[in-house]
Predict the 3D structure of the following.
Amino acid sequence: MSRNSNLGIVALIAFVVGAGVGVLGYIYTVGGSGEASATISAPTLSPFDGEALATENAVLRTQVESLSTAAASLVLEMSPEAAATVADVTPMPTAEPTVETAAPVTFNIVPEESQVTFTLEEDLQGVRTVVVGTTDQVAGQIQIDFADPSASRMGSIRINIRTLETDTEFRNRAIRSEILQSAKPDYEFSDFTPKTITGLPESVAVGDTFTFQVTGDLPLAGVTREVTFDVTLTVVSETRIEGTGTALVLRSDYGLQIPSVPSVANVTDEVALEIQFVAVAQ
């Protein structure tokens, strides 16, 4: 082989290595530190129907009291004969009309006691590896109507995707820069927005554990797909609930691409999502 040919091969290898190093350097730099831009919080739920009924009940009670007082004053001003006639024709109200309500309880997810996890598999340097990423930056509200569980609701569950961490800092930076692009301000947070809740039990009491399904929209890196979580929830006390929600998503559904680096191959398309949450009554 000629000297020129050897030089050409060396140059090609140097180019490939240099390009690889450049890609790695880009990923590491753009991926950032993973620091959250703000304290995690989630949109609050609108007033529950039961709260509106309770307000209506209070207004109605005040109106009845005013009418009763006015009627009593009129009767006192009448002659005995007229008062007796009015009593015969128009009986005084003896009871207040009420609207029966059971106040729902709103529970707020506690980030310090909760966790969001994703799990997938990849070949890392030729070894099949299970990759797990976690963050405790999750917030949201769950409202439980103990009198009518079917009327219970769940607000948007907000997750700070930028703060997800695996066991490798380079992978973390790749997730933030190239895969989920969560280093960008627009993609830092993902709000799972529930649309339907099915499978709720007919009754709920302290100590009960039950399962149900929540279907909603989950955005990742600018793409939104409908996802269904299977949820198991335990009512620990009147002021505390604990639970787990699991779902399976496909990277291909979101167009999530793995950066081409020499050490990583055969990353699974399926990604398991899990939310372990603790929520306390506000």
Notes: The first strand starts at residue 105 and ends at 109. The chain has a mean pLDDT of 84. The chain has two domains: 31-45+104-281, 51-89. The helical segments are 3-30, 49-77, 80-89, 169-179, 251-254.
